């Protein structure tokens, strides 16, 4: 094949690809002259090129189509669906012939050409103008001319990329040498310009690998239209996020799975118009395909509003085909049942159709997507539709990464797997060690802690002047998050990742290698591998456990699962907790059996004072309305959902009931009772006039403070002339005094615990409860 | 001329011959970054321009002992299964065609060499053990 013919083939196929997305938009809006012109130009170019290259066959086809389009431009023909179909058929044929020249495909039989041309002219001049498919481009851009492109072998781009990498490294080396030798500033200036050029060039070369998802979407409108036509269905296609970019190789890999899913959606998902009407849905089905970037992943969702997938049908079919056994099926959740669709050999359609029954099942879709490191998930509601979500990495080669230092060596960690970075001396972190297992608790979440130095067999180099180590909370895509201890996180960079050789991969904790600008190779850590090598627990969290049967009718409330100082595991409603804090032990104090802790300059009562060990104590700071208290715990385990009504109700003490979770019986702490046990009676309102406050030491130093603490205003009765000024007030006096103030209720205090006859109306001066109750009673009487 | 060219070199005192189509170059390596949790003969990673080489110590593969390395160790650069490797050797003497066709292995080759021995090659009046570096790297 000579060069000119090769160029013709490449250019024609390129134009066809670009136009295919426009076809349906043109059909939907036939008056759009810009689009019509684009098609006209295509046929005109093909005709011209073919004349030049002496290719009579495509020339004849292009000529016929050009004539029809010219007639439409002049308004002597209408762009009815039949005509458009005929024009499209010609486009397809030209594409087939071009591929035939390239040797990709056998040439289609020549005799059919006449039929296609006849179809073109046989089309009625005025047709029924109801398009079978509606195409609603969301980001409508009318092609104002197809941008000129060239085709390059991918290997050339790869070579270019590696050449540019070499250039960057040479630049860095030169830069180091220039720094070492003081050079002429003019040389520095030239070098700076060179550096900028090289950086630009690297960016551009990186971009040659990226392409808009539009390219992935381009063939879909046409496919949907043709399928709908063949199957007598109606569907509108909504495409979103075409401007998202991903690696061209990834696009190539996603084309087939996506095509297959859309075919399935129309063939098996969208119902015939009559069925849709019977089901109370609009006649025209809807398929929505959206692409979006999420971290370094591209998420493509394909949703239809068709009949959905009945999970039980899948199960029945899988059983009939012997793919699963009855025992397997028992205990499958709805999602597990739906996931059977990915089982090799299972096809949901009762009959194989020409459209999607081609032996390519969802299992192949999944295999293809997983091969490139992606994930497929499927959700479906019978009668309402199906949604399939593909998550694929944006690129295989460039990822954002964190550069970290550990044991004097540098490593990279994919940014997408890092949830959080913390210093190990942060107040939010507490690190404990139990039987060799190290656990870092961050804001109440417990994470297994592993030091990277331990895994890479290096001694942790002590940081200068006791700088804190960094904890990385790492979330492997599958499995549970853990904390990785490293010396420091140095930098955040876009890394070009290359596959590591098998002997390096054998270490089990590396995912690839990268060569940063300093020219020193660096290993990329594998978050999943680390968890496996470190033998971290891989069990799923309770709430994610697949077998957990959740009775949805049962209301639940979020609760904090914690361990008491005595080791008992308990729950408390999360809402009551304002914060969880680590407080130095010396801030705790005791007074007469009542504990308190100094928090931010205030004293807060401690509900369960007791012996504390270590230097820090973990407290739950509870606050409801204006009342607050602290509850000392040994450890916070997790936040879980507990049933609103405990499985066993207990009354008494500070326990409200018992909840059974995961085979553990957990007592639920009764926050109400906690607050009730504290003597925190709402600040008393009223005045206590104390007789002899000024000169009786007992009155002044013992009784006075008690009353103040209870919230009352305390005055010396002798200094008061009138009582009207105070509102509610009560007079307290020694039982021996005979103060007569008829206007005020009077409480007499006696010295002895036993009352003799004369003092029967008095209260023992150390009967705290009786005294406070009497005061409250007396004041309440006045308020009423 | 279809006769095979060999690189004649010494590894752990043994004279070896490596067919040149198996290798790309011989170079002195710069800094080698160690790889944790790997076999002892995997010395680490080294950069050769923009390529990253996995450095395997041929002497350690054979002797099982890891010796100290020169500042700029000599390595045979080869691509195996799509990855680039540097195979550390003692010294390189020549690249040349063999004086006669490859001979079958005769005598009892040391067990350490047996997995890689392809035959024997006569050069400058000495027998050299013909070795497959791909086998050495894959082992």
Protein traits:
heterodimer; A: 784 residues; alpha+beta; 6-stranded mixed sheet; 21 helices; elongated; B: 139 residues; mainly beta; 5-stranded mixed sheet; 11 strands; globular
| String of helices and strands of chain B | EEEEEEHEEEEEH
Side-by-side strand order of the widest sheet of chain B = 3-7-8-6-5-4
DSSP summary, beta strand count of chain B: 11
Q: Tell me the span between the first and last alpha carbons of chain B.
A: 32 Å
Number of helices of chain B: 2
Stretches of chain A where pLDDT falls below 50 for ≥5 residues? 125-144, 348-360, 539-553
Give the structural class of chain B: mainly beta
Strand tally of chain A, please? 36
Query: Looking at the structure, what is the overall shape of chain B?
Result: globular
Structural class of chain A: alpha+beta
Largest sheet of chain A: 6 strands, mixed
How many whole angstroms does the radius of gyration of chain B measure? 15 Å
Summed over residues and divided by their number, the pLDDT of chain A gives a mean of 77
Alpha-carbon distance between the two ends of chain A: 108 Å
Largest sheet: spatial strand order of chain A: 1-3-5-6-8-7
What does this structure look like?
The complex is a heterodimer of chains A (784) and B (139). By secondary structure, chain A is of the alpha+beta class. Chain A contains 21 helices and 36 strands. In chain A, the strands form eight sheets. Chain A has a six-stranded mixed beta sheet with strand order 1-3-5-6-8-7. Chain A has a six-stranded mixed beta sheet with strand order 11-15-16-14-13-12. In chain A, strand 9 and strand 10 form a beta hairpin. The termini of chain A are far apart. Chain B has 139 residues and is mainly beta. The interface between A and B is medium-sized, with 30 and 26 residues.
């Amino acid at each position: 094949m000579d060069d000119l013919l090769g160029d013709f083939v490449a250019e024609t196929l390129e134009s066809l690809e670009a136009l295919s997305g426009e076809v349906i938009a043109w059909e939907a809006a036939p008056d759009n002259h810009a689009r019509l012109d684009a098609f006209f130009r295509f046929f005109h170019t093909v005709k011209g090129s073919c004349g030049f290259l002496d290719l009579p066959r495509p020339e004849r086809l292009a000529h016929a189509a050009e004539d029809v389009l010219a007639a439409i431009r002049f308004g002597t023909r209408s762009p009815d669906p039949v005509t458009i179909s005929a024009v499209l058929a010609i486009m397809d044929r030209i594409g087939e012939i071009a591929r035939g020249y390239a040797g990709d495909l056998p040439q289609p039989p020549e005799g059919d050409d006449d039929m296609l041309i006849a179809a073109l002219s046989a089309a009625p001049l005025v047709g029924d103008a109801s398009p079978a498919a509606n195409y609603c481009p969301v980001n409508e851009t009318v092609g104002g001319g197809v941008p000129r492109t060239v085709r390059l072998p991918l290997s050339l781009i790869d070579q270019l990329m590696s050449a540019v990498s070499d250039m960057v490294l040479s630049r860095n080396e030169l830069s180091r040498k220039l720094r070492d030798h003081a050079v002429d500033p003019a040389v520095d200036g030239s070098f700076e310009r060179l550096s900028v050029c090289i950086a630009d060039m690297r960016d551009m070369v990186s971009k040659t690998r990226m392409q808009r998802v539009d390219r992935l979407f381009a063939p879909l409108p046409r496919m949907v239209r043709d399928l709908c036509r063949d199957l007598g269905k109606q569907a509108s296609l909504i495409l979103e996020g075409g401007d998202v970019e991903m690696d061209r190789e990834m696009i190539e890999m996603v084309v087939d799975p996506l095509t297959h899913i859309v075919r399935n959606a129309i063939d098996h998902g969208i119902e015939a118009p009559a069925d849709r009407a019977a089901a109370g849905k609009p006649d025209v089905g809807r398929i929505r395909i959206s692409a979006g970037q999420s971290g370094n992943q591209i998420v493509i969702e394909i949703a239809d509003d068709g009949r959905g997938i009945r999970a039980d049908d899948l199960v029945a079919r899988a059983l009939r085909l012997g793919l699963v056994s009855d025992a397997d099926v028992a205990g499958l959740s709805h999602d597990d049942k739906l996931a059977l669709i990915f089982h090799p050999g299972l096809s949901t359609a009762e009959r194989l159709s020409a459209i999607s029954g081609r032996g390519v099942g969802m299992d192949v879709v999944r295999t293809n997507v997983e091969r490139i490191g992606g994930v497929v998930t499927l959700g479906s509601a019978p009668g309402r539709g199906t949604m399939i979500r593909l998550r694929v990495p944006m690129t295989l080669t460039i990822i954002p990464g964190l550069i970290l230092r550990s044991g004097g060596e540098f490593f990279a960690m994919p940014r997408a797997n890092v949830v959080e970075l913390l210093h190990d001396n942060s107040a939010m972190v507490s690190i404990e060690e139990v039987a060799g297992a190290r656990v870092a608790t961050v804001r109440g979440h417990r994470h297994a802690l592993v030091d990277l130095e331990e895994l890479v067999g290096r001694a942790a180099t002590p940081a200068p002047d006791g700088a804190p180590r960094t904890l990385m909370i790492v979330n492997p895509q599958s499995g549970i998050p853990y904390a990785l201890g490293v010396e420091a996180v140095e930098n955040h960079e876009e890394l070009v990742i290359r596959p590591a050789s098998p002997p390096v991969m054998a270490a089990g904790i590396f995912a690839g290698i990268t060569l940063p600008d300093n020219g020193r190779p660096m290993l990329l850590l594998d978050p999943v591998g680390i968890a496996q090598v470190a033998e971290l627990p891989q069990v799923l969290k309770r709430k994610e456990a697949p077998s957990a049967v959740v009775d949805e009718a049962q209301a639940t409330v979020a609760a904090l699962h914690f361990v008491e100082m005595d080791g008992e595991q308990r729950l408390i409603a999360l809402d009551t907790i304002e914060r969880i804090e680590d407080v130095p032990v010396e801030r705790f104090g005791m007074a007469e059996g009542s504990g308190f802790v100094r928090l931010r300059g205030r004293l807060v009562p401690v509900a369960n004072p007791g012996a504390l060990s270590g230097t820090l104590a973990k407290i739950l700071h509870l606050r409801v309305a204006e009342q607050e208290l602290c509850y000392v715990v040994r450890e916070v385990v997790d936040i879980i959902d507990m049933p609103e009504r405990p499985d066993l109700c207990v009354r008494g003490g500070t326990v409200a009931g018992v909840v059974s979770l995961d085979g553990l019986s957990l007592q639920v702490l009764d926050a109400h009772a906690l607050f009730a046990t504290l003597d925190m009676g709402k600040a008393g309102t009223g005045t206590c006039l104390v007789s002899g406050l000024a000169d009786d030491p007992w009155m002044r130093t013992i009784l006075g403070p008690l009353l103040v603490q209870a919230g009352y205003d305390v005055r010396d009765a002798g200094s008061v002339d009138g009582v009207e000024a105070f509102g509610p007030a009560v007079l307290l006096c020694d039982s021996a005094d005979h103060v007569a103030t008829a206007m005020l209720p009077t409480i007499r205090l006696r010295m002895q615990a036993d009352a003799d006859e004369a003092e029967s109306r008095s209260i023992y001066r150390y009967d705290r409860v009786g005294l406070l109750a009497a005061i409250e009673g007396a004041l309440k009487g006045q308020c009423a | 001329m279809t006769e095979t060219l060999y690189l004649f070199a010494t590894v752990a005192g043994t004279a070896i011959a490596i067919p040149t189509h198996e290798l790309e170059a011989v170079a002195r390596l710069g800094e080698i970054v160690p790889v944790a949790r790997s076999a002892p003969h995997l010395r680490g990673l080294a950069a050769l321009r923009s390529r990253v080489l996995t450095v395997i110590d041929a002497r350690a593969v054979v002797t099982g002992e890891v010796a100290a390395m020169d500042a700029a160790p000599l390595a045979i650069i080869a691509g195996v299964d799509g990855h680039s490797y540097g195979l550390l050797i003692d010294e390189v003497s020549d690249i040349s065609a063999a004086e006669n066709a490859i001979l079958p292995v005769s005598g009892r080759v040391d067990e350490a060499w047996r997995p890689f021995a392809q035959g024997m090659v006569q050069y400058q009046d000495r027998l050299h053990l013909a070795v497959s570096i791909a086998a050495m790297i894959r082992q």
